[in-house]
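Tutorial handout. Part one gives the primary structure; part two gives the three-dimensional structure as tokens.
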Amino acid sequence: MELNNVKEVDVLVVGAGPTGLALACDLGRRGVSVLVAERADGLFPGSRGKGIQPRTMEVFDDLGVVDAVLAAGGPAPMGLVWQDGERAGEHDMFHRAGVTPAEPYGEPWLLPQWRTQEILLARLRELGGDVAFGHEATGLTQDADGVTARLSTGAAARARYTVAADGGRGSLRAALGIGMGGECVDPAPMLVADIRIRVPALDRDNWHLFGGDGAGFMAICPLPGTADFQLVAQFTDGTPDTSPEGVRNLVAARSHLEADDVTEVRWASDFRPRAAMADRFREGRVFLAGDAAHIHSPAGGQGLNTSVQDAYNLGWKLGQVLRHGAPESLLDSYEQERLPVAAQMLGLSTRIHRGEQERGKDTRQLGLGYRGGPLSLGGAGVLEAGDRAPDGPLPDGRRIFDLLRGPQFTLLAVGTDAELPRQLPDIVHIRRTDPYEAYGKGLFLVRPDGYIGWAGEDSAGLADYLGRVMRC
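Part two.
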């Protein structure tokens, strides 16, 4: 996609990682014109963020890509501990939670990040959007009506709003004058690489774990849907050698494999685990999302998931302001809701990295919500506003998620014949359902991102709430 002169859109998204692509998909299905500008010439090539948590699977369900994600990925294999070239026992890397009617995705799903991005890009193109690769945003200027971005190609983009999803090393956060504070989670550098291993030197049925013996741990995980393994290794001293020869020598030094068993090194990178968060997530008409706003240790698989959910939170709010006349003050709730969640997930990732907490229920992110937040009002049954809306079966064979899927608000009348307002905006769909224990009885207004915004035993207060999130 080539740009000439000035491209005018509703929203400019800078960065075509999972955050930017998920946001662009969400905006596209709302009829919001969006341009995704990516400085690289193509999608990120590595597997880095390979664990898709159950809550993110629900997001992908709503965005229309979950079938492709399920087809391309697979469950996390059992960890296999090796010692002196022998199988020494098993260690499960994740808490195994079964599927329930209320939680249809029970455990993390493994999918290399590059494949997740391919799936999201394909969906974006289905919705009529695309990515302008090789276009770096080199500067932004704001005025009362929008943002003008200068691009490295000499073109420019003009947008009502801009979202910086350009990663932890992106330039826009600093250009906006937003600081980022944090800490080094672990002084030991790490290496991550995508490799191929000669068959049958290492099986693909296990997540292979090798003890450090003073040199740092090493893990080799098969990546479902590919012939690749992801290698992660810690270094107690020195700088990781990311060259193909260096990666092969590392595998040979820390395992029973020979260097030549590694037939290909497809991608490699080194990093030092950090936990950091931006001082704020907004500057005028520009928002920070994903790694541009918060940087996680990879332990626990929270970074990509928290980032995608930033996009999911921001997308519907931009859509409401741009397409449905909602007050611009609605956009203030993005930082108010997401900054505390990001801080919570940063703490979780850090504790897991340091061995202070195991991967478990919290990492699945199904318990996250916005109780007490600026867009949460009331309660009914067993739920409070701000809670995630549970899934569940319906008498006609469909599921509650089938009712919620799409860019609309959904007013669920669960097990009640309470009178409903005579007039509601077209974007609010009404559905009556039988009593269901995951909800109890009551009226529940489910936001487009699957959280309950308002709840009550009757409709008193509903109209006032709707006035906060849309033009009534």
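Part three, for discussion. The chain has a mean pLDDT of 93. Residues 366 and 470 are 27 Å apart (CA to CA).
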